[in-house]
């Protein structure tokens, strides 16, 4: 790739918008993903993505009834509403911890995606439209899309970073958080809501079927190396930006789908990072894993003097 | 208790009942803990001790009765900054690593305080030093031994300098020297007037510190008063290791009861 090509790419308004969207989504999605992985809800984003498709379709339907131009002007707002409602339902089911809830979620997810496909067709959408929502269409990001993305990414990052410790507390040990009087329910709903917002902004970049990957895979990569929650989140965010930008640049030169390229790239990075982990990981600080402690038990061949309270005579020879 | 007449009890439970999974776990529990008191909560496995403290702290909902902490009903208005809780165990490891420092720092949040106060890091480091973990602050809690994790949990409760400390079996699975440091910590807190509710299976080294004992059986209070004598006499052998007190508390007055000791 020559310098001219880089300049050409960076001066194309289309590419500028796409790059901005990729950076915003790449940074925000893993922040939410870190909380989801910690809450053992790594697949929540996937579920929200399924439900969001119905929201997209409903927005489209309303748009076509109201003769809006473009027809899909309400797709993103529709996705936001459906995703937020869906995420809150998922959170409520999780809170109850009921096994029947598992089936309820499955019904919701499949109903969401099938209903979405059906409604988009009813609203007059084409297969190409459908594919662009399912697998992303970052190369067609409009200025309006970019504003939505920037605004929602700001909300997600503001909440996710600003309330990081509180969200960590709730996700790490819900029982202790309750015993501390923290508004556990409100904070859990907040995690669910920012996850929903992330799904709707990531929809443009990687598509509804792959949003979860952009939230979770960078976290999986980061935690191979990071030793703390904070660093996992930071490293995941950086990784998210890197794979999104690199993936996008690749699609500028090759005719390959951007969403899938970004996700495949992330999975490849994971594979390489996991393979190199034994070599690259900083060695543990040298420390005796068995700290010197007075033992619980006396062994037959222990020097009894060491444990007894007897004060040895310092002047005694041979000591 | 002379305190009880002047100030509201630190913990007050009236007729508390808890039903979980359609079963009555606790029925009609009345409990009042005065300021500065050290209360031991005893009972066999499954008798409802953990459930009782969870209900007192609002972790599980009560089906009947009321709970007051420092005179305020459970809820957003309770003085959460004055309460520290040490659960029985750390939750099963989640996917994301978290260091001892991060876990203890999260203990600085309570009630509607959702952001860390100034000097949070310093306070968390101090709390970890208090439990002898100063050299492991950046270690993942998931990689720690059970006893070290227990110390992290204690530091997380102490970091907000609570006036009421609730400990759920702080010494189970803990070696004797570490138990001794926990006993010292409790003794120091008791000295400074902290109210303590501690769940135990046997009084063991805590015996000299306990003012009162409540025994649960099948979710009901069956004893409330002087610490009962343990079943068997093995508990006595722990004393000499850690404390100068030659004997446990004077023998119980009131109903003679023995504590069922876990295996
Ligand atoms: N969430 C729950 N759902 C249903 N039953 C529960 C729940 N939590 C506790 N129980 C039941 O309540 C009873 C009391 O449990 P609890 O944990 O309070 O006992 P414990 O006295 O603390 O016992 P241990 O000494 O083993 O810690 C047990 O029979 C337990 O099975
Ligand atoms: Mg228990």
From TrEMBL, chain A:
Q: Which UniProt keywords apply?
A: Membrane, Transmembrane, Transmembrane helix, Transport
GO process annotations (BP): response to zinc ion; transmembrane transport
Cite the Pfam families for this sequence: ABC-3
Q: Where in or outside the cell?
A: Cell membrane; Membrane
Question: Quick one: a GO cellular component term?
Answer: ATP-binding cassette (ABC) transporter complex
Q: What family is this?
A: Belongs to the ABC-3 integral membrane protein family.
Task: Quote the protein name from its UniProt record.
Answer: ABC transporter
Record organism: Cellulomonas chitinilytica
What taxonomic lineage is listed for the species of origin?
Bacteria, Bacillati, Actinomycetota, Actinomycetes, Micrococcales
